[in-house]
Write a structure and sequence with these properties.
Elements lengths: L6 E2 L8 E11 L5 E11 L6 E4 L4 E7 L2 E2 L5 E3 L3 E4 L5 E10 L9 E5 L2 E5 L19 E10 L5 E4 L2 E8 L3 E12 L6 E4 L2 E8 L5 E8 L8 H18 L7 E7 L6 E2 L4 E5 L12 H16 L8 E2 L5 H19 L2 H21 L10 E2 L8 H34 L3 E2 L1 H12 L8 H4 L5 E9 L4 E9 L14 E8 L15 E5 L3 E6 L7 E4 L8 E3 L4 H10 L3 H17 L13 H12 L5 H7 L5 H5 L7 H18 L1 H17 L3 H18 L5 H13 L3 H13 L5 H12 L3 H12 L6 H8 L10 H14 L1 H4 L5 H16 L1 H7 L1 H4 L8 H13 L6 H11 L2
Parallel strand pairs: 2-12, 18-19, 19-21, 22-24, 25-31
Antiparallel strand pairs: 1-23, 2-3, 3-9, 4-8, 5-6, 5-9, 7-8, 10-11, 11-16, 12-15, 13-16, 14-15, 17-18, 20-21, 25-26, 26-29, 27-28, 27-30
Helix pairs in contact: 1-2, 2-3, 3-4, 3-5, 4-5, 4-9, 5-6, 8-9, 8-10, 9-11, 9-13, 11-15, 14-15, 15-17, 16-17, 17-18, 17-19, 18-19, 19-21, 23-24, 23-26, 24-27, 26-27
Bound molecules: ligand 7MF and zinc ion.
Zinc ion (ZN) binds next to helix 3.
Amino acid sequence: MNANTKQYLKDYTTPSHQIDQIELEFTLQEQQTTITANSKVVSLEKGGPLVLNGQDLELVSIAINQQVLAVSQYSVDDEELVITDVPDQFELTIVTRLDPSKNTKLEGLYVSDGAFCTQCEAQGFRRITFYLDRPDVMATFTTKIVADKTKFPYLLSNGNKVDSGDMPNNQHFAVWHDPHKKPAYLFALVAGDFDLLKDNFVTRSGRDVALEFFVDKGNKDKANHAMASLKRAMTWDEQRFNLEYDLDIYMVVAVDFFNMGAMENKGLNVFNSKFVLADVASATDSDFHGIESVIGHEYFHNWTGNRITCRDWFQLSLKEGLTVFRDQEFSADVGSRAVNRIDAVKVMRSNQFAEDAGPMSHPIRPNEVMEMNNFYTVTVYNKGAEVIRMLHTLVGEQRFQAGMANYVLRFDGQAVTCDDFIDAMEQGAEIDLSQFKNWYSQSGTPTIDIVQQYDVATHQLTLKVNQLLEQGNNEGPLAPFHLPMMVEVICSDGTSLTFATGKTSVVLEINEMAQTFIIDDVPSGATAVFFGDFSAPVKMAYDYSDAQLSHILAHSNNEFSRWDSAQQLLTSAIVNNIKLAASERRIAPSILESLQLVVTDDSLDPALVALMVELPSLGTLFELFDEVDVDGIIGARDFVKLTLATHLHQALLVRYQHCDNELLHTDDAARAVGLRALKNTVLGLITVTENSDTSQLLVDQFARATNMTDAFSALSYAVVNNALCAEALLNDFEQTWSDNGLVMDKWFAAIGASPQDCVIEKVKQLFNHKAFSWQNPNRVRSLIGSFSGNNQRQFHAENGQGYVFLTDQLIALNEINPQIAARLITPLMAWRKISGPRQLLMRDQLIRLQKLPNLAKDLVEKVEMSLGK
Ligand code: 7MF
Ligand code: ZN
């Protein structure tokens, strides 16, 4: 029924049966695990057949009310088990068998470095037993685990441990009971030998919660940052969202083999070890930040996802958009709001805008899906979070929280839809959201076109605003979006206009295709700044002059707008040089002066300065064009970077030294992170010129580094800037870290991003490196993903060898782990936008994939979408 066909949101029907309770028993053996599932099933429709999902399972037996069924009473295929005749209410007992050691897809039950673990979102539970594997079927789970006591001293599942004990033949068992009803995708089981880091948290209402982190032996000290992050997240959710934890225990297990970042299974999160383990020697500042945000994200799911879950997978953004919004706010409240906002906007502009303009374009609530795993996208997650953020901007914190409280009150314990969320917000925050709902049903990035008219006599600034919407994948006529536009007006003397609210910004509500706004009391010569804080996920069509951008950069009250104007100055410098021959390329001196002022400004947060002088990524630049001139854009960007580095050389060296000196003295950890960010961004610019001086700078920083941030920055700039010392540093790093997979990921990624023509040969050699494994998604993503996603120069090599290379690896991964293959195919899917002969070279590789006989559904869907049918 499901093989390579699409499912549609409009076809949703309620489940035919409900399962209120399930008792599971696992007898764990690496090569042969037996699972008995005992469910209490109630028919909701009376009479119909029971259709259960199941994949790659060996069915041992089925019984209804203890009566074993004859083979004539049911049928099984690749996807489903159908029992034609069932009573209205009954006990269903299914025994299945599987081989977890052969599960390289890492969905369902598998073995990671000798430990059993599970991943059930979205549809992994059906690889454990036959079940109604859909999120609107919610049951209480009781799980008994039996395993060898020596190899698997810890036996874990959701909820509370209610029984445990020894058994014959060195076996032991544990029984877990989760009192909260949940869909199967939140089920988890872990069995293995770990080091255990324990702590506790007392909730606001006085509940004592045991906090337990299970990590590979010898790594206990590396879990301290994750533990501290969890406690911060728990406190923050109580204070900002009034939400408390609801069980007596919260467990986190770190595993090396994991397809994604982490998973919010009730009471038993499973994490990619990359998002738990860190110490200063082996992890960068950005790794530490990533851990805090992913720990927060999974914890926040306990309410937005687990207590209130999704009715069906088309509603994924209900939990993911909202939870990303929550984790972003957490990071902003405990760290720098501006820096976190800028990081989120960079993801939107470089990745989400690209997705929304390409063949995979879909609304944050998709209408059709072939493989659900393909819809865990930047659109559902990050644009979904922007949509929630717009609500917050429109109504303010207080009314937003009233809406949230109403959502929790109305829907706790239920599986609901995005419309349910909007209804709860509408009611609780007292706002009409009928038009806002278009954000859930229409795809594509709107362009907001702004025309200004200033009346010298009345001092009125008139804004004529138009929404330009692209048809894209949408069906039928497009309706205007409802969105907030934040506006700041900066006068010629550099002061910002204060509005009636007492603030220096105002939020205008756009909700028509064409609209006019008037701002009063604007002095002549003022500059209006639109979409401060990226108040809506849109592109803006308004051409600021370089002089206006420099004025905004120097004077805006909004740190985001200052960063944005710096990026626009750099972008215009690059764009103006794309079509020019190398000898004709120029940059306006005023741009260089503006950036010089930024580099030398000691009053700005160093973390912000770092972001301001960083050139827009190639991904962001590609996104500005319908037809991408790869060589032109890379050439122009290189030119601007080199010119900047040359003109600012002295200032950059001075700033590098100042940062380094301050780092020796400061004991402000947050400031130190910013100083390192600036120091290393500056290092990247200085070392664009390869000579013995810049090489020495890299060698010295690498040798003196007391942390991974400085060591890895030196290493990666040595590689991307082709420094003389690159080989030596790579060898040194490899010697030091060859036993640490997570650190070797950095090394693999650095090599994958190398601009050298021989990079493909080098990457191929690394497939045989002892630290590399095709089964480990982190390794594969580091080496192959950094080449295809981060090395535009070599991926887009003119002869097409980058495309062929990626496709070769996708063919290999199709057999091992199609979910990872489907994530890595993204850069190839952009073929239509790439100009010149490259376009057909890329398409040829997609066609090659399409012809593969056993192409997994994950890849079938993406190849079909990008080639068109
Ligand atoms: C922060 O969403 C933001 C996004 C699904 C797996 C984690 O909690 C999750 C899981 C994917 C992609 C991104 C994230 C996750 C998944 C993620 C993690 C941390 N429910 Br797929
Ligand atoms: Zn999530």
